[in-house]
Sequence to fold (466 residues):
Amino acid sequence: MALRVYNTLSRQKEDFQTLEPNVVKLYVCGPTVYDDAHIGHAMSSLVFDIIKRYLIFKGYDVRHVMNFTDVDDKIINRANYEKRDPFELSAHYIKEYLRHMQDLNILPATVYPQATQEIEHIIETISALIEKGHAYAADGDVYFSVPTDEDYGKLSGRKTEDMQAGARVAVDNRKKTPMDFALWKSAKEGEPSWPSPWGEGRPGWHIECSVMSLNHLGEQIDIHGGGTDLIFPHHENEIAQSECYTDKQFATYWVHNGMLQFDGEKMSKSLGNMITIDQFLKEHEANVMRMLILTSNYRHPLKYSEKILEQTEKSLERLRSALKPELPGASGMDEDSVALLANELEVALNGFELAMDDDFNGAGALACLFDLVRVINQSRDQGATDEQLKPAQDLILKLTGVLGLELAQDGAKDAAVDPFIELLLKVRKNARENKNWAMSDLIRDELLALGVVIEDHKEGSTWHWD
Fold:
């Protein structure tokens, strides 16, 4: 089955075909850096990390650009409030965001352009739009003329005439129509600004992304990504200015992730239910957030609650159960059982790819992995040895790795204490043989408090990290 991707532009799944053979040009709108990043930011970054990882697994060379908006009203207002330099403020939060991406096991982008580093290209692009009749200057500002783009509204499905009829009376009477949007904003006192043909000023938000994509990926890209909240007006405006500038289709596929919902409500500062990435990672490992996203459709709103997180953590532990070693006294499975396990590997791999080829269906891919986990655990109970279990466990690690899950991330760190845990299990075994149940329970409970789970079987005891 060929990879199929849901395209917001066509509102349907389409066969995935790249502009260049085996190369994917991917642009994802990044954050406006003026405050601590929250788990809504994490969700979008994780969605596109999963998509990127799977494209790499399919053999594509993914050229990934994610921008930072580092000059904006929000940044300026925050800097003024804190009496800080706006460039210092944005630099601080860029550094923090990159740290969060590492903490969440998100692959780095090929390049992270910043709006303030693209001013020359932005001015050149705006000038070209004016020359082509798609933009006009007005007292130091420059506006994109929406009526000059016959296709405006094709991404969001909105009609220009309806938007015009429903628009409020324009406060800025320098606009030719209320729907026109700013490409360049004239300088205000105390704000960062740059010289331009229209006077001192700074770029508008929408033009920044178009120029950064054009500059780092070329005139046409394969995938443009972001949250559904960006479809209108940001992405709609990006299409308009980019395609009017190049006279070419800007992006082949528009991919949007749903918004995070906290107990049924949209996560927002006004509701006071924002959870920063640092706050989340103090309570949960990074895998939990990724697993939460994988168990739902990335295009739909993601429900978030403590109850859902508990269920997600249990699902993660279920995956990890496949990595447990052989049981004490394992004598090995017969040839038929070994062949059956080998066949399940092919079934799991094919099912995984079929699911992910269907618009990155993470939930379907996980279902195939859980089926394999069940077979592995059954095989262990039938006496499978570590050698017999290894191919299936290796496949679990490989495919969960494709999804960005780190099931064995603590193995190297904990390896040094393994001999001491084994020694305590021997002491506990001796205590049980002498019916010293108090000592046996004490060792079990103290190890559990340290994150070590002991499981007793009729052949002996095994342990694993919680």
Remarks:
- The mean pLDDT is 92.
- The CA atoms of residues 221 and 251 lie 5 Å apart.
- The radius of gyration is 27 Å.
- The longest helix spans residues 335-357.
